[in-house]
Amino acid sequence: MMRDRLKKGRKSKTHNFPNKGLDVLASTPDAENFCPACNKSAVTENPAGHHQKCGGEVITVGSARSASAGLRLVICGQIRGGKNGVKTTRKGKRYPDKKWAAWRDDAVRGIRAQLPNGFTAFDQPVNVRLEYVAGDKRRRDNPAIVDSIWHCLEKAGVVSDDTLLWPAESSRSYDKDSPRAVITFL
User: Fold this and answer.
1) Which of helix, strand or coil describes residue 17?
2) Total of domains in the chain
3) Residue 97 falls inside a structural domain
4) Is 88 part of any domain?
5) Nearest Cα to 112, choosing from 27, 14, 48, 18?
6) Among candidates 110, 127, 122, which has minimal Cα distance to 67?
């Protein structure tokens, strides 16, 4: 009887991250418009005025955005800090925590779906504006959030080395309904 109660209260091991499904969007030729802030693919009715509440910008996957200044990427959902997402074995080998790795892989898929066709990674130092919107009021330190986002950008192929990124401007705010990070290259 106790075992049944434990099973009912057990959480599912599947992760439901907001960027899930972006890989499908990127591989679907007829799905062109996408709103990364609310995770809606194939936004066709009134894409210019879409979802004013979420503040999302409807982008066209593969659009001819400039690969330099002005590139804007959105990571939807609560950002998981990277400093505590690394575990160490008894022999000293470091590896990412499973939950953090699942979040990272999902964020990387979301970033890659937003990159224009023919995008080449930044290989020179670049200034970045970071707008962090938390989904809860937990205390998080800035270096953990920045480290996590920079790591995702490097893994997604946006920058050849995350040491080339420099946060020239940053802000933080709170929105329970639409947590996200907006990265703008200056």
Assistant:
1) coil
2) 1
3) yes
4) yes
5) 27
6) 122
Give first-to-last CA distance, the chain, whole Å. Answer: 60
Domain encompassing residue 92: 64-185
Question: Domain for residue 54, yes or no?
Answer: no
**Residue 13 CB-half CA count within 13 A:** 2
Q: Is the pTM of this model over 0.90?
A: no
What's the whole-number mean pLDDT along residues 74-83? 88
CATH number, domain of 75, equals: 3.30.1330.70
Q: Which two three-digit tokens encode residue 60?
A: 């066209």
pLDDT in tens, 8-66: 444 433 344 444 434 333 333 333 455 555 545 544 555 555 444 445 555 444 433 33
119 within domain boundaries: yes
Structure-token pair, residue 164: 């080339």
